[in-house]
Specification:
With 283 residues, this protein is of the alpha+beta class. 14% of the residues lie in helices and 29% in strands. The strands form two sheets. A five-stranded antiparallel sheet has the order 1-4-9-6-7, with no helix packed on it. A five-stranded antiparallel sheet has the order 2-3-10-5-8, with no helix packed on it.
Length: 283
Amino acid sequence: MAHATYRLTARQVSIAAVLACSTPQLAFSDQLWGENLIVNGDAELGPASPTGQTVVAIPGWTLTGSMTVTTYGATPALPTTSAAGIAPGSQFFVGGPWSSVTQAFQFVDLAPYAGQISRGGARFEIFGAFGGIVDQEDGARMIVVWLDAAGQSLRTDTLLGPNIFERSNQTLLVNRHNEGILPAGTRSARVILLMTRVTGPANDAYADDLRLMLHPGPCSDLDINNDQVVPDDRDVVAFFDILAGAQCEACDSSDFNDDLIFPDDRDIIDFFTVLAGGRCGDS
């Protein structure tokens, strides 16, 4: 079925506003689609080592080894903001003064997204900037382990930092990105930043701008009343009728975004976003 451009009437907008504001059972879920779920992924929280050769606490992360945080350009040997490959803040992760292998990790609770994940189609995106110093092969990677409700591993996705040839033997950070469909049954993720020393006394692996974002799968079809005419006024009326508790045997449920949380404000927002030509979860 072809979808035509559709403009909402003032009456339909008023209905949406009244329902969203006055219906007691409607509420936002704890889902943050499209938002970074990693705490302090940009290393901006907490103190910075003056040179990268002393260990400081890194809020949001559990640490093993000498990983620390320092400031861009703090010494002539460290990368500057122009070499970061991103639009950075002032701080970044560094392997630190002594550990040949050092890591930081945190757990991300994905239980609020269980409905969409179980239905299938929920997507993830992971980002990071990784690098090292001149011709040394010290390197960083980000590992995301998807876990089920029992904490068992379902799958692992990894962002690998550049080798010295990809960095052209320069001191800089390079952007990395990966995306895909979340494994069925995912309820949490373990995010690991791993830094390895290959050359020299210090671990000169670098990382910044670590991000994990989720995106919902496709919403239900706009043909709410299943009359093969889409979109039309009757679909809007049917949607709000069932949202308000009316019976409609031919209609789809009020769970328009198929996240198994309904009725809620997200269903209204996603319905009108798709009706206006947008993508489910974009608003």
